[in-house]
């Protein structure tokens, strides 16, 4: 006998439904049921940050969150960032070579989209502190920091 139940999730502004077991993780529903494969699964322990999505506009680890807990919450994935073009952060990541293999990039972008929204004029130290929650094996982090600082400046300029 299955414990699966039908749930309704709001993902990227769209209500979607999935039949899930209570133990199914949000990352798995996003990837397997909804085809939103930009949410990467790395460590499956919440350490690497590759699975970061926004839940009610706050960064959260999709590999640690049960899908059934997300009914009534707004989930935003990397697929919703930028719209038609690149977001200022995505553009800066490109220009500053803030990505190489790209595995960590969706989690980094989701983390900093929220951070820059709430902290429009960060210090490099603040950026490095926030970045400590995302593991990257390729870049050495310096280019990611440069990209975040560049994006922050561009976003401040756009606001004025």
Describe the structure in your own words.
This is (2Fe-2S)-binding protein. InterPro entries: 2Fe-2S-bd, 2Fe-2S-bd_dom_sf, 2Fe-2S_ferredoxin-like_sf, 2Fe-2S_ferredoxin-type, 2Fe2S_fd_BS, Beta-grasp_dom_sf, Diverse_Oxidoreductases. Residues 5-81 form the 2Fe-2S ferredoxin-type domain. The mean pLDDT is 96. The chain is built from 5 helices and 5 strands, in the order E-E-H-E-E-E-H-H-H-H. It has a 5-stranded mixed sheet with strand order 2-1-5-3-4, with helices on both faces. The chain has 160 residues and is of the alpha+beta class. A hairpin with a 2-residue loop joins strand 1 and strand 2 (14-20). Helix 2 (88-95) crosses helix 5. It has 2 domains: 5-80, Ubiquitin-like (UB roll); 88-158, DNA polymerase, domain 1, CATH 1.10.150.
